[in-house]
Design goal:
The complex is a heterodimer of chains A (167) and B (752). Chain A has helices at 83-87, 90-95, 98-101, 127-130; strands spanning 15-24, 32-41, 44-51, 55-60, 63-68, 74-75, 105-111, 118-124, 133-140, 144-151, 156-161. Chain A is mostly beta strands. Chain A starts with 14 loop residues before the first strand and ends in a 6-residue tail after the last strand. In chain B, strands 3-4-2-5 form a four-stranded antiparallel beta sheet, sandwiched between helices. Chain B has a four-stranded antiparallel beta sheet with strand order 8-9-7-10. The chains are: A mainly beta (167), B alpha+beta (752). At the A-B interface, strand 5 and helix 1 of A face helix 3, helix 5, helix 6 and helix 7 of B.
């Protein structure tokens, strides 16, 4: 079995991977499952939900744009994005730049043993962000493989990411 | 008049001053008597009834918006510095963070989600629209950044609240992501940015914060009218105080050179103070509130009363410090004629029904009368004698100076040259004269602030258009119907850019119609599928539930108003929607596109024309008064020099590249009021009316007036400079050509 890397020493891998997002909403019985393809490029992630709707997001360190069903890309503003995802370093979460995330979160966890898979828990520092977000859990080995976002209202978003396919 | 009578007058004037001080204190101490808001300058008559009120209200709403971008290399430092600024601003009580407005707005949109719509009319919400809403809400639900929650979907399964936020709120930049290491703070001031007290409190907080944070490498980009207003006022103050110091020193030097006695300075100040006292009493007695601009220009008008003190002081060396009665008698008639004609001239400002002009007329009139009384009652008490040893020496100094002045005479060559210069200047002016009423050009905006504003806009999208669509009617419902009519007539892209208060709070009938369509076309047909998608039944949802007691957000409330007979709505309109709104309102008489800067420019244009007419009327009134006093047509020759002074002021300003404006016309008024004095005194002297003031005294008063007001022509602030040029050139020419009045007087004497 290959040894896992220190999560704080990861380098963002460029290439494509598949993802599956499962959103569980409090008071709703059926989870909302969507799948798609993400492509990581230097300084940018193209995140495309393919099923059941076509949504394309371009995520950079300072900006997120969204295009729906082939439409024009528009900056994600207050009416169309979760406050914590707009301002909490989504780019860094998905690219594994966890040191940079210390700006927003108190980070706990890590590898149980050197070379073992790791798990991190991120708690927001800002009280405003804390109104929306309880914790973010990230698990992986040589890259982030699963992200669980636990919102303050009981909703959760789980994102599973497959291995990276080099272009 | 006997000694007892004179002391009686002194006592009476002293008592009047005491009562005046008490009256002024009673009016000023409770506050509210001084109007510092530039918006009060809007002419009441020149605009349609609701436009003025709406402009004032919209001006407060638009001008109060501010945005600041806090930057630092280290994002943590930027965040902590921004938090510190937010804390200070909140503690100041003059700033409301946009986040508070945002939460208030979100609550309102959620509470009214089924009764508001993005479409212009209820019937535009069709089955196809409902399908689009279903699809777009599905996208939000599956989007990784979609701001949805289970709780929200239970009450708003088709995310109508988010849809309304997107279409009703124009892109304000609120909450938009900013580059790394920067934090945007946006919000509004609790009062107009043009109110000096609000401005000062806010700017003081920002300045103190900047002083503390700059050494940490934190920088601030500022956007908003408050910053520009404060910057403009600060520059004007600096200009005026620099020029003020220079002119004060010049006047002191002049008085000491001529009179060689320090007491000449407090005596001169005493008369000016007496003038101000009279001005304040008069204006505060007649008007409930007095605008600050009245004080600015009124003070210039009253400042010329220093001449009355100077004339009395001149009688000292002229008579070898004769008796008070002799000295008073020497100047009483000419100075009284000067006071009456000046007061007549300034009173013409009140002829045009412009409130601020009426205030200036009363201010100047009260000041002239009071200063005149002071010069003949109190001043003689303080200038009885120069002392035995000094009397002859001072008379000798005076005689020497008078001889020097005597060399300043026109000859054929100099007069021809002056006339030629005047004619060439006039021709140049006729061909090149420009008029400036555009308030945007009165004072160039600070390039630093303009660059910072661009930085804020680039980083956040925050724009600051002060223009708006104004709709009005006899009732609020009529005003709303009018606004809806305009919005229905413009393209969708333009409508989306407009922040329309009516769309946040439509009439009850429209609300019901919208809710019926939302229910029939969206909720009824599509809720079962949406419930099924979420593993629920339709009964688990409360799509029509409405929280109680949700108030219309205060910033939307501020966009509507009422006068005695009219209700109106203000819809802030960005430049990209202006053309569509102008086209849609062109033929309407109860809706209009309003550009406040244009309206202010129009107001200043009206003021300039009114002031020009008032100046012409002043010439007429002074002429009639001169005919009544002297009962001979030659007295009209007195008007030649001030007339040339007014025209010459315009010519000089034009040659120096300063266009004609309202401020130049105010300068012309000073020239009419003061310039006529020089000619009156020379005319009196020529008639042999015992006026020895025609020589050195009028040269001293002309120089003091030019030093006190004319030096303002060196200011870098356009309004101040325009006023200064008009006064400096006008008074110099009035003095120079005052020989015409002497010639008219002497010609009359020869005829007799």
């Amino acid at each position: 079995m290959a040894k896992c890397s220190d999560p704080f020493a990861l380098r963002a891998e460029t290439g494509q991977f598949d993802f599956k997002q499962t959103r569980r909403l409090a008071n709703m019985k059926t989870p909302l499952v969507s799948t798609g393809i993400a492509e990581v490029k230097p300084g940018r992630i193209d995140w495309r939900v393919v099923k059941p709707v076509d949504v394309r997001l371009t995520i950079t360190p300072g900006r997120i744009t969204q295009s729906v069903q082939g439409g024009k890309a528009q900056a994600v503003g207050p009416a169309s994005a979760d406050p914590f995802l707009r301002s909490s370093g989504l780019f860094e979460i998905l690219t594994g730049d966890y040191d940079a995330l210390r700006r927003y979160y108190v980070i706990s966890g890590g590898q149980r043993a050197p070379g073992a898979p790791w798990k991190l828990a991120l708690k927001p520092k800002d009280a405003g962000l804390g109104r929306f977000l309880s914790t973010i859990e990230i698990a992986g080995c040589n890259r982030a493989e699963a992200v669980n976002i636990n919102q303050a209202n009981g909703d959760t978003i789980a994102i599973e990411m497959s291995a990276v396919r080099r272009n | 008049m006997g000694r007892g009578g004179r002391f009686g007058l002194v006592g009476l004037y002293g008592l009047a001053c005491l009562l005046a001080v008490l009256f002024i204190a009673a009016r000023l101490l409770p506050g509210g008597a001084l109007d510092t808001d530039i918006q009060s300058l809007l002419p009441a008559q020149a605009l349609k009834p609701p436009i003025r009120e709406a402009m004032v209200q919209a001006g407060v709403a638009a001008s109060s918006r501010v945005a600041m971008l806090v930057s630092a290399k280290d994002p943590d430092i930027a965040a902590s510095a921004a938090a510190d600024l937010q804390k200070r601003l909140k503690a100041s009580g003059v700033f409301v963070d946009a986040a508070l407005d945002g939460e208030e707005t979100a609550r309102w949109l959620f509470a009214n989600r089924n009764q508001l719509r993005c479409e212009p009319r209820p019937e535009d919400f069709t089955a196809a629209t409902a399908d689009q809403v279903v699809q777009s809400s599905l996208v939000q639900i599956y989007s990784p950044v979609g701001p949805v929650s289970g709780e929200m979907l239970q009450r708003d399964p088709f995310l109508l609240t988010l849809r309304l936020s997107g279409c009703l709120l124009p892109s304000s930049g609120f909450g938009a992501p900013t580059p790394d290491g920067t934090v945007l703070i946006s919000g509004r001031l609790t009062g107009s940015a043009f109110r000096l007290d609000t401005q000062k409190q806010f700017i003081d907080v920002v300045r103190a914060w900047t002083a503390e944070q700059s050494p940490r490498g934190v920088s601030l980009a500022r956007a908003g009218a408050a910053f520009h207003a404060e910057d403009g006022a600060r520059h004007a103050r600096r200009d005026v105080s620099t020029v003020g110091v220079a002119s004060t020193l010049g006047i002191i030097l002049l008085l000491l050179t001529v009179f060689r006695r320090p007491r000449a300075i407090p005596i001169t100040l005493l008369v000016v103070a007496g003038g101000y006292l009279g001005s304040l009493v008069a204006v505060l007695a007649v008007f409930k509130t007095v605008h600050m601009l009245t004080f600015v220009f009124g003070s210039a008008f009253v400042g010329v009363t220093a001449d009355y003190a100077i004339y009395y002081l001149c009688t000292g060396p002229l008579t070898g410090w004769g008796s008070q009665a002799e000295r008073r008698a020497m100047i009483f008639r000419p100075v009284t004629v000067c006071m009456i004609t000046s007061a007549m001239g300034f009173s013409c400002l009140a002829l045009f029904g412009v409130p601020i002009f009426s205030q200036m007329a009363v201010f100047a009139g009260g000041g002239l009368v009071s200063a005149w009384a002071c010069a003949f009652t109190l001043v003689p008490l303080f200038d009885r004698d120069a002392g035995d040893g000094r009397r002859e020496r001072l008379v000798g100094v005076w005689t020497g100076l008078e001889k020097l002045r005597g060399r300043l005479v026109w000859n054929r060559v100099t007069l021809t040259l002056a006339a030629l210069l005047f004619i060439v200047g006039a021709v140049f002016t006729v061909g090149r004269m420009q008029v400036l009423d555009d308030v945007r050009k009165f004072q160039p905006r600070s390039p630093v602030l303009v660059a910072e504003e661009a930085e804020v806009r680039a980083a956040s999208g925050v724009g600051f258009s002060p223009n708006f669509l104004l709709s009005w009617g006899a009732t609020p419902a009529e005003a709303k119907a009018r606004e809806a009519q305009v919005l229905a007539a413009i393209p969708d892209s333009a409508r989306r850019a407009i922040l329309s208060p009516d769309r946040f709070d439509p009439p009850a009938a429209e609300r019901q119609a919208t809710e019926a369509r939302v229910n029939d076309l969206l909720i009824g047909p599509h809720l079962p599928d949406r419930a099924s998608l979420l593993g629920q039944t339709a009964g688990d949802f409360q799509p029509l539930a409405r929280p109680a007691d949700v108030a219309l957000p205060s910033w939307i409330q501020a966009l509507s108003g009422k006068t005695d007979k009219i209700s109106y709505l203000i819809a802030p309109t960005p430049d990209e929607a202006a053309g569509a709104v102008i086209a849609a309102t062109r033929t309407m008489d109860t809706a209009a596109y309003v550009d406040p800067a244009d309206a202010y420019s129009q107001a200043f244009g009206d003021y300039r024309r009114a002031a020009a007419l008032a100046a012409a009327a002043a010439f007429g009134a002074v002429g009639l008064m001169l005919l009544a006093i002297y009962r001979r047509f030659s007295a009209l020759g007195i008007l030649v020099a001030p007339g040339l002074g007014v025209v010459g002021g315009i010519i000089v300003a034009s040659v120096l590249g300063a266009p004609l404006s309202f401020f130049s016309m105010m300068g012309a008024f000073v020239v009419v009021g003061t310039g006529a004095d020089y000619s009156i005194l020379r005319y009196e002297a020529a008639l042999g009316k015992q006026s020895p003031l025609a020589g050195l005294p009028i040269l001293i008063t002309a120089l003091t007036a030019i030093l006190s007001m004319g030096l303002l022509s060196l200011s870098s602030t356009y309004p101040v400079r325009a006023f200064g040029i008009a006064v400096a050139a006008g008074l110099a020419i009035s003095y120079g050509f005052s020989f015409v009045a002497a010639w008219c007087g002497s010609r009359h004497v020869r005829k007799a």
